[in-house]
Give the backbone structure.
Amino acid sequence: MAAELKLGKKLNEGKTKEIYELLDRPGHVLVQSKDQITAGNTVRRDQMEGKAAISNKTTGCVFKLLQEAGIKTAFVEPHSATAFVAARCEMIPIEWVCRRIATGSFLKRNPGVKEGYRFSPLKLEMFFKDDANNDPQWSEEQLIEAKFCFAGLNIGQCEVDVMNRATVAIFEILEKAWSTQDCTLVDMKIEFGVNVTTKEIILADVIDNDSWRLWPSGDRSQQKDKQVYRDLKEVTPEALQVVKRNFQWVAERVQLLLESKNTGRVVVLMGSASDIDHCEKIKKACLSYGIPCVLRVTSAHKGPDETLRIKAEYEGDGVPTVFVAVAGRSNGLGPVMSGNTAYPVINCPPITADWGAQDIWSSLRMPSGLGCTTVLSPDAAAQFAAQIFGLNNHLVWVKLRASMLNTWISLKLADKKLQECTL
């Protein structure tokens, strides 16, 4: 497959990969993995046959999960068993390390902290990529004072804040995903780059089994990451096979992070077909979270028996369901549904300018024993349903988490732009 791309010059070479210019795809590069495993800034270095393919597979699955969640990354598409196409970036020479559990170098730098100490919130650290000086830890102030500029973007407080916030969100997304495999994401390192085409900061480099610590069932003795290689007293062919099997185990499990056994749906009940536009907005928002959505027309005032029959239809097949009641004027749908089902019910009435202020009370003032929630925005109704399903479906939860990050970043960049215009 490699012959299909016109490779230009080698742009960079690291311990475990090579980056090539793509002559026929401006603004893109080929990231080629190597069968090399290292530790201690290459103090220890060995060839491990098959590692390139294993690492490339792991990275591809991780970036697919992140992109489907809504995280911007450099990953574009897989190219071969050992390489993928990525957006060309000017890399920011910082390793961002996020920790949930204290172990490894953190214990050496922080004597008195016992292994297993849990960070809540997450502990965030940064290290300047400098092999000659063993990648020294940097402060936020050092990074800002370095006055870096990559692809025309100056790295200042705003950019550092964005990378800080993104690192935490990326860790939490992968932590949530790995928890579905009963695996604890202990810590992780990532890198960012500036996309040379869009001039924005995006997650770049790779995320593979060299990038994190993974403890199945939270048990360090079962660790499956590169730490097993670091801990070897002597590297033998047999020991390397153990390390390779661990890497293969991770590559197989990481594919499962793209799946969820927990399914669900939203059923939108509208009191009149005239409410269809309002309901279509709810459906569109639900689909953006990966949640199937069904639209039905029924009136709790004019046909309560049919409303309850429809309710029973969706209760009877065992699929977790959230009902959304869309009724203008006097909302009978929400209260009737809430009083007759144990499933969640959300009121989302289509408020009008004339009587809206009066009509809303039929969705807010409920008899005792009813627990339906009321929101006015179709997007908010879908988001609330997603939050319910996200408790048991990590693929929905990660979309919510990425959306939070992207909203925060958009506000941060808008404020920066306004300040620049004011100055």
Observations:
- The mean pLDDT is 95.
